[in-house]
Amino acid sequence: xxxxxxxxxxxxxxxxxxxxxxxxxxxxxxxxxxxxxxxxxxxxxxxxxxxxxxxxxxxxxxxxxxxxxxxxxxxxxxxxxxxxxxxxxxxxxxxxxxxxxxxxxxxxxxxxxxxxxxxxxxxxxxxxxxxxxxx
Length: 135
Ligand SMILES: [Zn+2]
What we know:
Layout (H helix, E strand, L loop, with lengths): L8 H7 L7 H7 L8 H17 L15 H8 L8 H13 L4 H8 L3 H11 L11
Helix pairs in contact: 2-3, 4-5, 5-7, 6-7
The chain binds zinc ion.
The site of zinc ion has 6 residues, from α3.
């Protein structure tokens, strides 16, 4: 790509938000700037497209609403502002609760209000069907 095709970084950022699925790929490729540059985004997208074509993968993937991205959950647990699905938010609350983190602190780490934290904790602590030992 020649310099006359260079796209200003702010435009690249607006086209590809931080939670774009190829953000980490583009960031790994790019050695030009802290945020992936336009040409590196293009390479990440083209590489991704090659895999789709080569393995005849579906272009649109149906999101599994129960899928939990454990890396996103762990990042959220460290207080990073990460976009989480409902299942991931619940997993993050459960992980922090298991570590003995108070509900107030959980709310601060996950950017949730008291009501949201309480609701998630209630959902986690719902009694599960008991298995009984048969003598
Ligand atoms: Zn680059």
